[in-house]
Amino acid sequence: MFSRLASSSWRSSVLAELRIGPKALKETVPWLLRTRLRQIDSLLDVALKNAREAPHDLAYEMEHEHLTWSELANTTSRVAHAMAAAGVKPGDVVALLAENSPFYIASVLGISRVGATAALLNTNLRGRPLSHAVEVSKANVVLVSHSLEPGLRECDELCQSLDRILVFDGNPYAGLLGDTPAAPY
Question: Does a structural domain hold residue 28?
Fold first, then answer.
């Protein structure tokens, strides 16, 4: 052991690691303070700011779907209205089980807009692992795509313990968001 202490390469390695500490603190502590003082914008804040400042610019593009910042802001507002209508309140957790899409991004932001937290679930989970993920998240509502609903419904105990299961199909704008207002939430 003492031979390792005498090794110059080991000693220089330890000294290099010790020098990183102050730099890490110098960069981390101000970030933590800005976060505590709410001086750092959330992703939702950035999206809403962009909707005000550049409403027609492209916010999201995936295959054939495109959303401008204005459309994204309107969709997040409609998701927030749908969540509130389903009984979601600030501080709640909504589990999101859906494929990647522009609506997925809008759902995450809309859940945040209502004051709840989105728990993002792995779409490959089934059975007990899926139940465990939802239980650990402490979600009382699940927003699930139509194609993944059967896997969720296999978890009978879990489904009975949830307050709501909200399902959207391939066109969530006609289904889940059909009657929700686009007025800002």
Answer: yes
The residue segments making up the domain with residue 121 are 43-168
Q: What are the pLDDT tens digits along the chain (185 aa)?
A: 555 556 677 777 777 777 777 766 776 777 677 777 766 678 898 899 899 999 999 998 888 888 899 999 999 999 999 999 889 999 999 999 999 888 899 999 999 999 999 999 999 998 899 999 999 999 999 999 989 988 888 887 777 888 888 888 766 555 667 777 777 77
- Specify whether 63 is located in the same domain as 10: no
How far apart are the C-alpha atoms of 73 and 81, rounded to whole Å?
12
Residue at 92 is within a domain: yes
Q: What are phi and psi of 172, to 5 degrees?
A: -65, -20
Q: Is there a single domain that holds both residue 65 and residue 129?
A: yes
Determine the Cα–Cα distance for residues 138 and 91; give it in Å rounded to an integer.
11
pTM score of the predicted model: 0.73
